[in-house]
């Protein structure tokens, strides 16, 4: 039985409709304690500033017909996906010490459960007990020593996935495991030696409640997490939680704020105060997530669905602090993605003569210039900070991949060529790195939908093997615009989840 009491974590709504997580002592979890008989009591410490969990626990094992370990948990119903990065602290005593995610029918020591677990010697597995008091079974991964751990539930099906940070996930699927609709979900640690306490640390801890069956894109929306990522360490931090669809943060060049869109309006989110205010854009109140800041931070380009143009997306510019928008593109649909470093040109994706290509137009207005003409979708154009290249994504090779070209459309180079569908390349301010969004191969190459498992990946500006810097649930609205911080080390993005269920 669990030995320590319940600690509550309240998730409240403000009058503005923003679901601000009033995180308690256990972060997103609500209880913790030792399951089964242990000689030394375990503990949990949550660091709210770093958003990191430290677990300490003893216990003889999580195996056989009953278990003994330390567990921090919350109750969930229905479908969900659990994401975290974890590692043991210290050399440890027993090579079979364990830590990871667990989903459990109850807190009894012999309860049915499933976990994704890493042992002290690097062994990774999906382990499970089908019935109370029954034997433990396992499905081992070929990969040793992963630190990225995920566990997803779809009905009575569980999908465990692991990776070494920077690499894609590999997965195993277990079907027919009935744990009941309401389960205990959380992180655990077991020393595999009841005379000692072992420790582990977990960061990037996320519980995702995904889009339900029957949801309708662009009508039904999940909640949003506004996050900041350190691309060197992979450490993520949630800045803001919204019950609505918050999308596509820009980072202002002065480093003081993020600009995102929500419900057709643009908001400025002050990093110092974490307060969001509407940027006044006059009649342009149907703005999508293709908005761009000029390199000097003085101007904001908008993609507004103008009623006088049949609801098509038209590009406008407005001072960053707001004002009356000035129309730039004469027709639509036109979706803005880039501003030239000298401030003279905008680059965008536009549908003309039945095909989406990349165009350039003077900021002051004038004739648009077509830069690509390959069949299929070309999208996401963005200038490099030195103005020497325009980076973009194109389906011309059969899958969506990252390309670059000279500003006049010459000198085409393909920079990625892999199994993923890669979108929206963004150049770091120092010009060294490209950050982009990668969909799994099961997504149509010409589509960038909401609410899918996706990666954020990064590679050198001249190309090279990309590495994963974030594993998340998102897609449309996650990284449509350049969101690099001025320090070229941090970037902002949006991930998605429904409101946590009790």
From TrEMBL:
Domain of life where this protein originates: Bacteria
SUPFAM superfamilies in alphabetical order: Tricorn protease N-terminal domain
Keyword Cell membrane tagged: no
Keyword Signal: yes
Coiled-coil annotated spans: none
Entry keywords, A to Z: Signal
Signal sequence residues: 1-21
Gene3D superfamilies linked to this entry: TolB, C-terminal domain
Family: Belongs to the TolB family.
Protein name per UniProt: Biopolymer transporter TolR
